[in-house]
Amino acid sequence: MNLIVAVDKNWAIGSKNELLVRIPNDHKFFRTVTMGKVVVLGRKTLAGFPNGLPLKGRTNIILSSNKDFKVKDGIVVHNEEELFNELKKYRDDDIYVIGGGMVYEMLLPYCRIAHVTKIDYEYDADTYFPDLDKLPEWKIVDESDEETYFSIEYAFYKYQNDKPVAYR
User: Fold this and answer.
1) What is the reported pTM?
2) Structural domain boundaries of the chain?
């Protein structure tokens, strides 16, 4: 299983259920990496998408504790057990966790690859991602040159966890 996230200097990922910043090249990278794959996300993350609809060209698995929640063109699961039963249908390499904070926290131990866009700025935030640089099981295996969008500097990092927890 993989994950993809954009973080600021403090590993913040959001504020008031919104992204901290929208960087076109980061969105392009996200689309390229996840297109044709399985994305796992929470209900609040889905609500932040255009019209609250699943991402086109991907299998969307939405985690919601609300048993009555349904979404067109998405698979809704209600707990970790249902999620893992659904994920067994797909190859690990094709699964991408895309947020939000609670979903990242729950699934991080099961992920082997993390694609992290690091933004060189501190935002006012209320949602954070675990600092992979402080977790011994995670190592940087690739990084891009720094890029700039207006005055925002950022870079793409690929982390690897050689001992993810098995869920199958």
Assistant:
1) 0.96
2) 2-161
Amino acid at 123: Y
Burial grade of 33 (CB within 10 A; 0-12, 13-18, 19 or more): middle
pLDDT in tens, 54-90: 999 999 999 999 999 999 999 999 999 999 999 999 9
Q: Nearest-CA neighbor of 21 among 153, 138, 143, 129? A: 153
Class of domain 2-161: alpha beta
Residues composing the chain? 168
**d(Cα 139, Cα 119) in Å, to the nearest integer?**
18
Any bridge partners for residue 64, and if so which? Answer: none
The DSSP code for 42 is E
* Number of Cα atoms under 13 Å in the Cβ half of residue 125: 20
Cα-Cα end-to-end distance for the chain: 11
User: What is the chain's alpha carbon radius of gyration, rounded to the nearest angstrom?
Assistant: 15
Residues 158, 11, 1, 104: what is their CA dihedral angle, to the nearest 10 degrees?
-170
Neighbours of 32 (CB within 10 A): 8
